Amino acid sequence: MKNKEGLFLIFLIFILLFLVIFKPIYGWKLRQFLGFNNQSQDSLETLKNENIKLQSELAQLSSIQSDIQNGPKNYIGAMVYSEYPMNFKNEITLNVGSNQGVSVSKAVLFGNSFIGKTIKVFNDYSIVQTIFDGDFKIPVKIGNSLYDGLLVGGTSPKISSISKKASINNGDVIIVADPNFPYGIPIGTVRDVKISSDNLFQEATIDFAYDMENINSVLVQK
């Protein structure tokens, strides 16, 4: 019995060699048939990997799409890298850099709200200083009368240096008024107003339309 199996195997090898040398097309088909199971497994793994890649790209595009469609022109979409478990709000890292047209000191938005500026730009990623950084300061305008104020960053950003004569109310919109950025980008709204500790100005806390911990994509000014 073993001799017959051995002869049959030799016969198959002979046929395969003959086809490979003299009939390459049929030889390739026969090799494909004999290796069908391995190739099917390889194809399955390839399809799985491609599916995972497509799902990843779809998740990114879905996150950025609404921001791009509803956001201002001349901005590019970017994904925010995870900083778990630290989750500091004063800085975020983006997956775009100089190769994608990003430069230093450009406005960064979430939706239509100003959240910070680029401070370091590398080839394919960049770092953003947010308004939740204690060193962040930017001049602003408040309400329909456009009263002057100064946004002072920190864990709880506030608007300081508001004239005591200014009629500021809860819900008044706060916008960017720094010549380094496009004028009028909204930051948030006034939450509470009080007299400063030195009794020289008014100051206001800010109500934001977002939570930094939930930001996965942003828009970066070109």
How would you describe this structure to a colleague?
The chain has 222 residues and is of the alpha+beta class. It has two domains: 2-65, no CATH class; 74-222, Beta Barrel (Thrombin, subunit H), CATH 2.40.10.340. The protein has three helices and twelve strands, in the order αααββββββββββββ. It has helices at 2-22, 24-34, 36-70; strands at residues 75-79, 91-94, 107-110, 113-121, 126-130, 137-142, 147-152, 158-162, 173-176, 186-195, 202-207, 217-221. The strands form two sheets. It has a six-stranded antiparallel sheet, covered by helices on one side. Helix 1 (2-22) crosses helix 2 (24-34). The longest helix has 35 residues, at 36-70. The model has no long low-confidence stretch (mean pLDDT 82).
The chain-level structural class is alpha+beta
Largest sheet: 6 strands, antiparallel
Number of E strands: 12
C-alpha Rg (nearest Å): 31 Å
Summarize model confidence as the mean pLDDT.
82
Helix % is 25-40%
Strand residues, percent: 25-35%
Extract low-pLDDT stretches.
Answer: none
Q: What is the 3D shape?
A: elongated
| Euclidean distance between termini CA atoms | 78 Å
CATH class of the largest domain: Mainly Beta
Total of domains: 2
CATH level-two architecture of the largest domain: Beta Barrel
CATH superfamily of the largest domain: Rod shape-determining protein MreC, domain 1
Q: What spatial order of strands do you see in the largest sheet?
A: 1-12-3-4-5-2
Itemize the secondary structure elements and their pairings:
Layout: H1 2-22, H2 24-34, H3 36-70, E1 75-79, E2 91-94, E3 107-110, E4 113-121, E5 126-130, E6 137-142, E7 147-152, E8 158-162, E9 173-176, E10 186-195, E11 202-207, E12 217-221
Antiparallel strand pairs: 1-12, 2-5, 3-4, 3-12, 4-5, 6-7, 6-9, 7-8, 8-11, 9-10, 10-11
